[in-house]
Amino acid sequence: MEPNCCKNKSKKNIKQATEFLKIISEENRLKILCILRDGDKCVCEIWQLLNLSQNLTSHHLKVLKDFSLISSKKEGLKVFYKLNNETLAKHTESLTKFLKL
Amino acid sequence: MEPNCCKNKSKKNIKQATEFLKIISEENRLKILCILRDGDKCVCEIWQLLNLSQNLTSHHLKVLKDFSLISSKKEGLKVFYKLNNETLAKHTESLTKFLKL
DNA sequence: CTATAATATCAATATATATTGATTAAGTTT
DNA sequence: AAACTTAATCAATATATATTGATATTATAG
Hints:
Structural class of chain A: alpha+beta
Strand content of chain A: 5-15%
CATH class of chain A: Mainly Alpha
Order of helices and strands of chain A: HHEHHEEH
CATH superfamily of chain A: Winged helix-like DNA-binding domain superfamily/Winged helix DNA-binding domain
CATH architecture of chain A: Orthogonal Bundle
Number of helices of chain A: 5
Helix content of chain A: 55-70%
Radius of gyration of chain A: 16 Å
Shape of chain A: elongated
Oligomer: homodimer
Number of domains of chain A: 1
Distance between the termini of chain A: 17 Å
Largest interface: A-B, 33 and 33 residues
């Protein structure tokens, strides 16, 4: 008998889960999410906390933003990033549901 | 102020989390875990369900096994793989705890 | 012992992703 | 306007990982 996860209905879920997982399975990106838990931060704060170059930090921020895990707001010269709790919660929930299935 | 996740105490947790995440962020590996939820399966069953080549399936099984997420038992010609529920639970728990932090 | 089946391993290649360095863009300050 | 600051982008490279094809290993059957 074909397991649930191999059925067409589940394929989409698996794909979504792995996309999310790939994004948060990078150490610096996971740290960024963690850092933003403490409140919004501008890029220069983030890359200094991560001890990472500015451009690389921007790159990781873009990946997170493209997946709607964070959002940004420009204030003068600085760009502040904010954690998108809803999106994060949504994905972690569906992931844990999936892992407990 | 330095966020928790940037402190030395948390670094190990982040590393462990990302290691686990990298392993399960591959579609076929995630499917394997899912398939084994239904009960132990031999390799030939698994690669046929995944619609994947035998050697590639063996490779993914090895990755999962090296991380103790599954275990194997030889029976005649066949090798049966079994989900290691405890390890999986342990990692998912510490992950969700981390994401909710 | 030979042939066959199931699985693992290995080397080569392909692909995806992270990293670096240089440049650009936008906003500020003087 | 010129100089400076912050962040984003782009091309080039490095690195990690998945995939493929061929071969080795182990057990079974004839």
